[in-house]
Amino acid sequence: MQRFLPVALGKGSDLEKAFATVALVYNNSADPEGKLSKAETKTLLQTQFMNFIQVRARLIQRLYTVYLW
Q1: Same domain, 46 and 29
Q2: Which of 2, 19, 21, 26 has the least CB density, counted as fewest CB within 10 Å?
Q3: To the nearest 10°, the Cα dihedral for 29, 21, 15, 36?
């Protein structure tokens, strides 16, 4: 069951967006008691970190391409 946070991510700082994203991902992944096993936590952190790195890499690549033209 997915839960949502009432957060206006568009108006927050990068740090606020990062914390809101962490809270949302955790809430959507936790069991009804709000707990995650060690294995689930490890997988969740690895997945989110890889997603973050991939998004940042694509952004940097786009910026680099724009500045070369």
Answers
A1: no
A2: 2
A3: 0
Count, residues in the chain:
69
Mean pLDDT in order along the chain per 10 residues (69 residues): 56 75 81 86 83 86 81
Distance between CA atoms of residues 27 and 20, nearest Å:
10
What pLDDT is stored for residue 4 in this prediction? Answer: 57
Rounded CA gap, 67 and 69, in Å? 5
Whether 40 and 29 have beta carbons less than 8 Å apart is answered as yes
Both tokens of 15, joined, read: 């740090």
Domain that holds residue 27: 1-35
Distance CA 26, CA 35 (A): 9
* Domain count of the fold of the chain: 2
